[in-house]
Specification:
The complex is a heterodimer. By secondary structure, chain A is α/β, with parallel strands linked by helices. Chain A is built from 16 helices and 28 strands. In chain A, helix 7 packs parallel to helix 8 and helix 14 packs parallel to helix 15. Chain B has an 18-stranded antiparallel beta barrel. Chain B is globular. The chains are: A alpha/beta, B mainly beta.
């Protein structure tokens, strides 16, 4: 055999060379444009136009199995695998619901786990400068916000300044290790259960002790367990004992000192937010996330546990820094888990927050009236709504914050039925879906910003934490359910009729009756005037009574509205629109089936 | 465990035996050493009646540098050693067979260094294959039995123990890590060689990178190789075509491939173990080598075409954290590559170009498992592309050995970002001056860079990291001048300059995250002799 071509592979070699150079993947590595540093911009015109959807990222959608580190499917106190990529991939779902703003759970790196419960919720921060790898990397977060902005959706970030994750223990017995001990004999001395992770409030500061008695302030000892990222917090001063108050667990929430200086139950140590270094760290750490990902607002956790002066400094610094970069109308709304309306409003005085969660309404309206609809004995009359709303101008800020969100706080309260900290509406309402949908009607049509907790549209009915933090993707992102379609219809109406978003509110009918009276459970309010142009008007009438058809009449008294006599009002909520004509003197008797509602607009303003 | 640590330079050693044994004085010393070693290893029970045979490897080491030269026309009379290159005629003595012997060979590197700050000198590479002078300690000890039964038939049994440093004298820990890198039998019938067992099965390397860029198998299996064509042209140019095929398996102790679970015993009390997941990786390789040697001088070309196919069956493992069963899809992959080498045949001078593209499971080294996956936990879209260059040049009192590569790796994840999507490359040049026959000084200068598809914490785009290194290495080479003469006993000082991207690769608590310059000052030794890692 004679080899006429000594290089058998000459042509093949050439082909291989070309293949190697042109092979998939041989292009230079890069991050997508959406993953790069964004240019900050103002994406919001008026926050009242927004519909917020609260997302627990871990529970929404799993878009990347590669960050499913130690997930335990079905164990709701553990990570489930949801991430920013999953959320970005499933924005169609929330958009079809009519959502315009995503409130995402905290993004920062957390302590992995504590007492066999994971930090899937994100509220156990360890490093304010790093992303939580369970949810993705910075590029993923940026891609989420970019994808949202492309849909004209905004992204609000959940932040915590009051505490960090459980990072240290109080070495009360000075033995250098964290103990959970029982002290006392039960006869000559009382039996005491003491956890060095979470000892009770002591106005002197958590005390050390020995058999001989008191031993002064208990040293703060940071835990060093890298395997669960339980290491001193970052950045800077947050990793030092100086950054924490060290007074122990809050026992009395009505005591202002305990409320602002005490540790949050669960061993979440209270940060000394009065320190200039701490304040600067908080401002810089969280504003940086806005700059990194072009976020549109902060939802701020546990604001009532931080002194007012902090909020004055924090909000001013954040607004100023962002305004310099072209981001205006940045919304900062706080969570004060409290039914005290006056307390809530105190965080919206000039120089502080733009808004707060309307927790007092959660209790006084959605719980007392809507949730309890199935139990007339405990259901409150709708006059309670009137009374609560009447306090808005008194308790809440009445002028927009300087360089703030652009709308006065009392008009910008964040309304909600439930959230991740309370049992779901359907859990408390014994599964009464009519009550849920009726409550949603009020939520989406009332003054302020509606906020829907993820899964509400799927009739999720979990009880208290963590049962109320279900996995959304088990629903298959179904959009055909009655509640989903109801919410979608409501948000569409809110978008269509400006009065439902920007008009002032006037209650035109409410009742103390909850029984068999003709107006039992009836509630009606007008949306007119305010910032609405061209005489926009809407009338919302709800019957919160679960058994009886109701009417806006009580004996000789009939509801009167501001529309002139003869005005024809059309119920735009009903698929078979009901038309009513305003009577002499503006009287209008509206009949509504149990747990139903009507949304009227003048016939001339009805939009297709 | 990095690829680098799994790829010691043993094969380079055996490939370079040619140049080693072609040196008269070297052969004398080597014969003595081999004899002593063999005696030591077998307790003196050597077949003293047979001559000690040093069997040169068939394939070249650094490209063509160790390509077997034509057999010596006349073995040195003064040596008790007979060099028997494969395929050469048997000795002409009457009934010389069978002949048998034990052989001992070794590769090793041991070094110790200070960072000049009171600490240990640390490796500073940020790419898969950077400068090799600060690689971790490693050694292979090979014991081999070789028998020549007839002129057409011979066999050998190879056992290679590998020791992974750091070693006892540094740690005080007598439990060194040991691995069996070779344990196989091989036999030849005329031009056909067949083998089976556990084996490092590798092609040519790039010495300064400690890198086998093309074929680098570590499996249990078998193979066959045959010279399928050989001719000599009228002008003296010779052509030789050789084909090698191999099939191997491995099943790493990782829940990606294997999981053992304890379950309730079917009878009585207690538990019994079951293999919940058992899916070995199947690897088939095919290699075609064309060797062309000039009839005028010792120069020549070598062309290699190489292909791999890999398969992994589907399986199910139990997540021991959640006790939930997780499916793993089946995988396939391929690798194609080539090598083109030119060698002068003089003083180990050569240059070699490597190209490779792999996809699917074949994009992952057989001794590693994927870390990231597509949504269905598959890796079918993973890929690796490589261009590499290696070479050596020696002239007079100077030498230059070098290597470079560019490699693009992409995992199968649909994510556009992640640590498993990166480009990397390095160039290492080691010029040497041979001050005397036995003393020289080398400068090991290198640049390496890696660009990873994650956000640069110090910037906006992908994370780019680079390192510049320069090492000064005066050395003593008892075997004389040459880039591949070993043993080599050296002193070293190296400075490493690391940019912000390189520092960002380390945890904040690590001093490497803070320091821009690293020092590496120490001493070390590297050796290789009489090892056989090739058919």
């Amino acid at each position: 055999m004679r080899n006429t071509n000594p290089f058998l592979s000459r042509s093949v070699f050439g082909a291989l060379f070309a293949t190697a150079l042109m092979a998939p993947g041989s292009g230079c590595v890069s991050v997508p444009d959406e993953g790069k540093q964004p240019a900050l911009a103002t994406h919001v015109e008026d926050w009242r136009d927004e519909v917020i959807y609260q997302v627990l990222v871990d529970r929404y959608a799993n878009g990347d199995a590669n960050n499913d580190y130690k997930v335990q499917p079905g164990a709701l106190a553990r990570y489930q695998g949801g991430d920013w990529r999953g959320l970005a991939q499933n924005l169609d779902y929330v958009q079809s619901l009519g959502v315009t703003t995503l409130w995402i759970s905290p993004v920062v790196k957390n302590v992995e786990t504590d007492a066999n419960v994971d930090a899937y919720h994100g509220y156990w921060a360890q490093d304010l400068t790093q992303t939580n790898p369970h949810f993705g990397d910075l590029a993923d977060l940026r891609e989420l916000t970019a994808a949202a902005h492309k849909r004209n959706m905004k992204v609000v970030l959940d932040i915590v300044t009051n505490h960090m994750g459980q990072a240290f223990f109080y070495d009360m017995n000075l033995n250098g290790v964290p103990d959970t001990n029982v002290f006392g004999t039960g006869t000559s001395s009382p039996v005491q259960h003491i956890s060095e992770y979470d000892p009770d409030w002591d106005p002197r500061g958590v005390q050390a002790f020995s058999a001989a008695g008191n031993a002064g302030r208990a040293p703060i000892v940071f835990i060093q367990d890298a395997s669960i990222n339980r290491v001193p917090p970052q950045p800077g001063i947050l990793g030092t004992a100086a950054a924490y108050h060290g007074f122990g667990r809050i026992l009395n929430y009505d005591d202002p000192a305990q409320r602002t200086l005490g540790d949050f139950p669960g061993g979440l140590k209270d940060v000394a937010t009065e320190l200039p270094d701490v304040r600067a760290t908080m401002v810089d750490s969280y504003t940086r996330w806005v700059e990194l990902a072009d976020l549109d607002g902060f939802r701020i956790d546990t604001v009532k546990h931080v002194e007012h002066e902090f909020w004055q400094v924090f909000t001013a610094a954040v607004r100023a820094r962002l305004a310099k970069q072209g981001k205006n109308r940045f919304l900062m709304f706080g969570e004060s888990f409290d039914g005290n309306d006056q307390l809530l409003g105190s965080y919206t005085v000039p120089g502080e927050l733009d808004s707060v969660f309307y927790f007092s309404q959660h209790y006084a309206v959605y719980r007392d009236i809507f949730v309890n609809a199935h139990d007339p004995k405990s259901q409150k009359g709708t006059d309670q709504i009137t009374q609560l709303w009447a306090q808005k101008k008194t308790h809440y800020g009445t002028v927009p914050q300087t360089d703030g969100a652009g709308v006065a706080p009392y008009k910008l309260l964040v309304n909600f039925l439930d959230n991740h900290d309370v049992a779901r509406f359907l859990s408390d309402a014994a599964g009464d879906k009519d009550a849920l949908r009726n409550a949603l009607t009020l939520l989406v049509t009332e003054d302020g910003i509606p906020c829907i907790y993820y899964g509400t549209e799927q009739d999720f009915s979990g009880g208290n934490d963590p049962a109320n933090r279900e996995i959304l993707w088990t629903s298959g992102f179904d959009t055909s359910g009655d509640t989903f379609r109801h919410v979608a219809k409501l948000t569409a109406l809110r978008k269509k009729y400006e009065a439902l978003r920007r008009a002032d509110t006037k209650v035109v009918w409410s009742s103390a009756h909850t029984g068999a009276e003709s107006d039992a459970g009836m509630f009606a309010f007008e949306r007119a005037g305010g910032d609405v142009s061209a005489g926009g008007y809407a009338l919302v009438v709800l019957n919160t009574n679960a058994k009886n058809r109701g009417n806006t009449q009580d004996g000789m008294k009939t509801m009167t509205v501001s529309q002139p006599a003869g005005t024809v009002l059309v119920d735009v909520l009903d698929p078979n629109p009901v038309q009513l004509t305003v009577g002499t003197g503006g009287t209008l008797a509206v009949t509504v089936d149990p747990q139903k509602a009507r949304i009227f607009v003048p016939q001339a303003q009805v939009k297709p | 465990m990095t690829h680098a640590t799994l790829s010691p330079s043993l094969q380079s050693a055996c490939k370079r035996m040619k140049s080693l044994v072609s040196h008269r004085r070297a052969r004398r010393l080597l014969a003595t050493l081999v004899s002593m070693s063999a005696l030591a290893m077998i307790g003196g029970v050597a077949h003293a009646q047979n001559p000690v045979v040093v069997h040169s490897p068939n394939l070249p080491g650094p490209a063509a540098t160790a390509e077997p030269e034509p057999p010596a026309e006349k073995p040195p009379e003064t040596l008790p050693t007979v060099i028997v290159p494969p395929g050469t005629a048997a000795p002409t003595e009457a009934s010389p067979y069978p002949q048998g012997k034990f052989e001992f060979g070794s590769y090793g590197r041991v070094r110790v260094a200070s960072d000049l700050r009171g600490g240990t000198g640390r490796p500073s590479n940020i790419v898969s294959h950077g400068a090799r002078f600060d690689e971790s300690d490693y050694a292979e000890l090979e014991l081999r039995r070789e028998d020549k039964i007839t002129a057409d038939v011979d066999s050998k049994v190879v056992a290679t123990m590998a020791l992974f440093g750091p070693f006892f004298h540094f740690t005080g820990n007598p439990s060194d890590n040991i691995g069996v890198r070779n344990l196989y039998a091989q036999a030849r019938y005329k031009d056909v060689t067949i083998w089976a067992g556990a084996r490092m099965y590798r092609g040519d390397d790039i010495y300064v990178l400690d890198y086998w860029p093309l074929d680098n198998q570590n499996t249990v299996g078998g193979g066959v190789g045959a010279k399928v064509y050989e001719t000599k042209a009228e002008n003296g140019t010779s052509y030789e075509t050789k084909v090698q095929a191999h099939f191997g398996m491995n099943r790493l102790d990782d829940t990606y491939q294997y999981q053992k679970l304890s379950v309730v015993a079917p009878f009585g009390f207690g538990t019994t173990d079951i293999a919940k997941l058992d899916r070995p990786r199947m690897v088939e390789t095919l290699k075609l080598r064309e060797l062309v040697k000039s009839g005028k001088d010792k120069s020549g070309f070598k062309v290699i075409l190489y292909g791999e196919a890999q398969e992994l069956s589907a399986g199910v493992y139990t997540d021991t954290n959640t006790h939930v069963e997780q499916p793993l899809p089946s995988e396939t992959g391929y690798l194609i590559g080539s090598e083109l080498a030119y060698f002068t045949g003089e003083r180990d001078t050569y240059v070699a170009l490597f190209l490779k593209h792999a996809r699917g499971i074949a994009a992952y080294d057989p001794l590693s498992v994927p870390l990231t996956f597509a949504g269905d936990r598959s890796v079918g879209d993973a890929s690796e592309s490589l261009v590499a260059l290696g070479g050596n040049y020696e002239r007079g009192a100077f030498g230059l050995v070098g290597g470079a590569y560019f490699r693009a790796f992409r995992d199968a994840s649909a994510n556009q970002t992640g640590t498993q999507k990166y480009d990397e490359g390095a160039i290492v040049l080691r010029p040497q001056a041979y001050i005397t026959d036995h003393f020289g000084v080398a400068l090991d200068a290198s640049y390496q860079a890696r660009r990873t598809a994650i956000i640069d914490p110090n910037g906006s785009g992908a994370l780019s990291a680079s390192v510049v290194r320069a090492a000064l290495m005066p050395y003593f080479s008892p075997w004389g001048r040459g880039s591949f003469k070993r043993p080599q006993i050296y002193a070293i000082y190296a400075a490493t300059f690391r940019d912000s991207g390189a520092r960002a690769l380390y945890a904040a608590e690590d001093v490497f995250a803070q320091r821009k310059i690293e020092h590496f000052a120490g001493i070390g030794a590297e050796w290789w002799f009489n090892s056989s890692s090739y058919p």
